[in-house]
Amino acid sequence: MKPLSPEAIAVIEGRHADPFRYLGPQVEDGRPVLRVFIPDAMRITALWTTGRETPLTKIHPSGLFSGDCADIDIRYRLRVEFEGAIVEIEDPYRFPPLLTDYDLHLLAEGSHFQLYDRLGAHPIECDGVAGVSFAVLAPDAQRVSVVGDFNSWDGRRHMMRVRGNGYWEIFAPAAGIGDKYKFEIRGSQGRMLPLKSDPVAFAAELRPQTASIVVDARSIAKPCAAPAGCNSVHAPISIYEVHLGSWRRRSHGGHRWLTYRELADELPEYVRGMNFTHVEFLPVTEHPFDGSWGYQPTGFFAPTSRHGTPAEFANLVDACHRAGLGVILDWVPGHFPDDAHGLAQFDGTALYEHADPRQGRHLDWGTLIFNHGRIEVQNFLIANALFWLDRYGIDGLRVDAVASMLYLDYSRPAGEWIPNRQGGRENLEAVAFLKRFNTEVYGRFPNAATIAEESTSWPQVSRPVHHDGLGFGYKWNMGWMNDTLDFISRDPIHRKHHHQSITFGMLYAYFENFVLPLSHDEVVHGKRSLLGRMPGDEWQRFANLRTYYGFMFGHPGKKLMFMGSEFAQEREWRHDHSLDWHLLEKPFHSGLQALVRDLNHLYRTVPALHHFDCDGSGFEWLILDDIDNSVFAWLRKGRHIHDRCLVVVNFTPQLHRDYRVPIKDGGTWREVLNTDSSFYGGSNAGNAGLVRCNAGSSGSELRLVIPPLATIFLVPEP
Hints:
The protein is α+β, with helices and mostly antiparallel strands. The chain contains 14 helices and 39 strands. α4 (about 260-275) runs parallel beside α5 (about 310-320) and α13 packs parallel to α14.
């Protein structure tokens, strides 16, 4: 054998930067040649479509062959003889490029918002041959190979073609649907990295395994549409927040998770029966650590395999839509874990994250922070958001931890953060990213909703980008939640000293389009369950919680309630246990569940309670200064003069039998819901039948029975 060229040696050693320049049909010294590298092959013969057969010469014992090429444009197959086996295969190095010049142009400018159609793994037919196209971004890599079930996980078998901007691609005729795969990457310094999962994979193995799985995503039936207008600011929006792994579990099989199919059979029916309008899933993107609840994702395009396949997840969304529910996903574009198989140091450099830990590592969570100023990262994340809306028909994205994205000094000690180019603490790149994200989402899916979990006073979070807002549709009202939970957790005798905790929220209630969140974060980490926070004996604890729920549903703002809170889960939420459904055998718990069902029904059917949730013209204080009695009353208003609802809340156990509430409109009013009803576990005090306004010293007024620890709702009779 004559000495090998440096290119040949680089191919054999698996470090050639562009093997398509050496392998496959080539022209050398003006004549066509064919080079093939198949490790451990003993003999290889080229089988031309003309019928000619050309035995190739073995030029290196590792499996490198060469021979004359009949014609560089003629198709061929390879007959390969291994020890004890002879197979016919396609040569991956005879196929043309996969990414078009237009793809590369869009990727370069960061506007390829359907990159999930081009990157990742896609079963296709190329030049009449079935196989899988693979493409991945690794700009600092010296060499990238795809390895998997189809090539014995040998990185020398499918070394990829490098294209512009650091994208690598190959068509693998041997690969097919269901194959597991990863990328084998040699960094620019020649160091082999841990095998990497595909950032754009549509499915992944169940943890602790981490391989990506080839899926024909286009064959997955798209769910039917959600109810029209379900995300409008004028629509009733009451969200049931769910962690799929712990909503219910099967006692047989070691208290296993429900599958997507089982969830599709049970969850939509339950949520709809409780009269919620939406269901929100804690992150379903693939993640290695159960205890992260999904908030440390590695597979941004893959529904977690814990519950089944992507097609089965699509079926769950479809079932929710058919039940009349909108579907919201928790989405995590701020950070990701540093697991070796994931995005961290993907090509041997800080590709997705910041290189400097003062910018790139989150101190609270031990995760890596996305570099939102990098165009490839922006493109990846925005395309990911659009993917869930496009392929799975998701109706909204609740964006996690927005505050941690907006501030460079978020949860960092002095001196451990880098100011922006203007010397400030605002993360200008993340701000620009969020504006672009919202612009693209609403531009392509105008009926979708984006919801910010943002806990600071950053202005105009839910105002349009063209008005210098961040562009979200809604924002969680964390201030309302913290103030009112603190209030209701206090003994009623002390509540008069914290009166402003109830009234203060109305000073800023319309600065944003708010969602009132009683989320998973309020029932973990020693905070206790919502019931566990209530003071008093058993009756008072449930009465306090009933009052609080009534107050919430009467207050302006869309609603969100974490699973289990609707029936007064006693224990804190545990991600690895089912909710305590057996509690519904107890009257207080089943009564509270019935109350939440009826509050949702009232909220949905009385326009005054939802139409102007985000508009101050729909609210009027009637009583806000009865500090000693901790009684509050207000009027909610709809579009029409007859769309009115009076809400009265008594936060003490004192019964009031002739309580006067001023009503400008006069007339006769009917009590339509009373949280103190015996049906819900209350004392059954209230206003039976109709209540007519009387003339008072300063106008007409209603004289009401105000039950102890209760919220009542009244509407005018036509």
